[in-house]
Amino acid sequence: MEGASFGAGRAGAALDPISFIKRPQTILRITAWVFSIVVFGSIVNEGYVNSESTPELHCIYNKNEGACNYGIAIGIIAFFACIFFLVLDLNFQEISSVKDRRRAVLLDLAFSGLWSFLWFVCFCFLANQWQQTKKSEAVSQGADAARAGIAFSFFSIITWVALMVKALQRYRLGTDMSLFATDQLSAAPGTGYPGYPAGSGVEGTETYQSPPFTETLDTSPKGYQVPAY
């Protein structure tokens, strides 16, 4: 069961760093990592503004602390998740067990699907709260950061959906190869290849001819004698 499966080469094979970086999956993870930094970075740096009545800081999204906290939390978790899965992809080829590879791909698939949904919720939440935000001088100063958080939340949906699709493709490929390997190895040890069908044990006489000399003796006329020399 050791070998190439789930989109990776044979276990223990050397990994080419250039090829690894050029993989679509690696590019998507780096992109998702950058987008997560933009989302939670913009909210942390400029997502809190002063109120006109009090100097206390409030969330720029309609003074809803939940919106800012949600965006920051989703972004930070996505940031560390991208690092984790990048390391996992880097060491994926070192995993020799097909079952362990399958678990890793399923984890990637489940997390990517979940985070695609959570980014969608984040985009809708922030966009809705931004539409209800009352314009003021303080809000205008942080408007670009607020829009950046909304925009890159939307871009994150696309990247994580793409990661989910890539994980699904790897899972289907690995499952097909695992089933093929199981069929090939299901035969008992020492079992040889099937031979030709065995006969009934009785050979027909129609397919054979009598030797020419015997046939000549049998068909000679009676009374004929071979002259002696």
TrEMBL record:
Q: Which PROSITE patterns match?
A: MARVEL
Annotated GO MF terms: SH2 domain binding
Alphabetical keyword list: Membrane, Transmembrane, Transmembrane helix
Keyword check for Chaperone, yes or no. no
MARVEL domain sequence ranges:
20-172
Question: Where's it mainly located?
Answer: membrane
Which positions, given as ranges, span the membrane? 26-44, 70-92, 104-128, 148-168
A GO BP term here is:
regulation of synaptic vesicle priming
Statement: the UniProt record of this protein carries the keyword GTP-binding: no
> Which parts of the chain are coiled coil?
none
How does this chain sit within the bilayer? Multi-pass membrane protein
Task: Tell me the Pfam families matching this sequence.
Answer: MARVEL (PF01284)
Q: Where, subcellularly, is it found?
A: Membrane
InterPro entries recorded: Marvel, Synaptogyrin
Q: State the family it belongs to.
A: Belongs to the synaptogyrin family.
**Identification of the protein by name:** Synaptogyrin
Which species is this UniProt entry from? Vombatus ursinus (Common wombat)
The gene is SYNGR3
